[in-house]
Design goal:
CATH class of the largest domain: Mainly Alpha
CATH topology of the largest domain: Receptor-associated Protein
Order of helices and strands: HHHHHHHHHHH
Distance between the termini: 38 Å
Strand content: under 5%
Number of domains: 3
Number of helices: 11
Largest sheet: none
CATH architecture of the largest domain: Up-down Bundle
Oligomer: single chain
Length: 279
């Protein structure tokens, strides 16, 4: 992981230097600088998205683990022994946590403590909530088999709801991207055509009314105002991209944090387009 970070930082620095030497003062410089920053921090971004992917896999495999455990317990095998037997099964990203749970039980650690450690190690909210229900049932002397079955059914329903929401939100996701690019097109039309024409009209009027140095100073003020408007358009695109990405993530994944990848894509693409085309 450290090697990946070093490589991405070095490559980002090289791209930034090349961009400065070749494109400084041109319309391509800002776009190249953004790409250099993106490459520089790509290892951190990759780690963030990889962890989100791992969490999804862990949550899916926990459902499989719960089902297998319920089947073992229904045959009359005690839960501790069932967990030890189930630990030999491959559960993907969850396997190491299941094996650690089995080792703790073999070492004589109480089931309640071992389950809490298992839930905390996964770092998954659904698993923590499910394990806490099982622990509470074990403490109160309830039927663990029925509780495990109920928890498994609950996780399955949650997964179905998430999958349905994700499939139904696909069209809304595409619509969000389409609206954002339409917004960029409008900003470019304003920035390239409308604002310069308004600036030319203002300059002509001020030149006609003003005399000497006073008239020239008013013209320069109008030009600087146009430059300020260009920076405002750029910030508008970045802000729109950030919040549009968050909303897309909320609709598709049900979590604002998952919208950060959409925000990053929209902000980078939007900034590169508007900085390159407008110059």
């Amino acid at each position: 992981m450290k090697t990946d970070k070093a490589i991405s930082m070095i490559l980002g620095g090289v791209i930034g230097i090349v961009d400065y030497l070749l494109f400084f003062g041109t319309r391509w410089f800002k776009a190249g600088f953004v790409i250099a920053l993106l490459v520089f921090f790509s290892s951190y971004l990759t780690a963030f998205f990889r962890e989100n992917k791992r969490q999804k896999e862990v949550e899916t495999k926990f459902l499989e683990f719960s089902r297998t455990l319920v089947e073992k317990v229904k045959t009359g095998i005690p839960i501790p022994k069932a967990i030890i037997q189930v630990s030999e099964t491959d559960f993907g990203a969850l396997s190491k946590h299941v094996k650690k749970l089995a080792y703790q039980i073999e070492w004589g650690i109480p089931l309640r403590e071992a389950l809490n450690t298992f839930a905390n190690d996964t770092g998954n909210a659904v698993i923590k909530r499910s394990v806490s229900i099982v622990v509470e049932a074990e403490q109160s002397g309830g039927n663990i088999t029925d509780v495990l079955q109920a928890v498994t059914d609950s996780i399955l329903q949650i997964k179905k709801i998430k999958d349905e929401r994700r499939s139904n939100a696909y069209s809304q996701t595409m619509q969000g991207y389409f609206v954002f690019f339409i917004f960029i097109g409008i900003m470019l039309m304003l920035q390239i055509y409308l604002v310069p024409q308004l600036g030319d009209i203002t300059s002509s009027v001020l030149s006609g009314l003003g005399e000497g140095y006073e008239g020239l100073s008013k013209v320069e003020t109008a030009k600087s105002s146009a430059l300020d408007i260009n920076s405002i358009f750029t910030w508008l695109v970045l802000i729109q991209g950030f919040f549009a990405g968050l909303m897309i993530g909320k609709f598709a994944e049900g979590d604002l944090k998952m919208g950060l990848k959409h925000s990053l894509i929209l902000m980078v693409v939007g900034y590169v387009i508007i900085s390159t085309v407008s110059g």
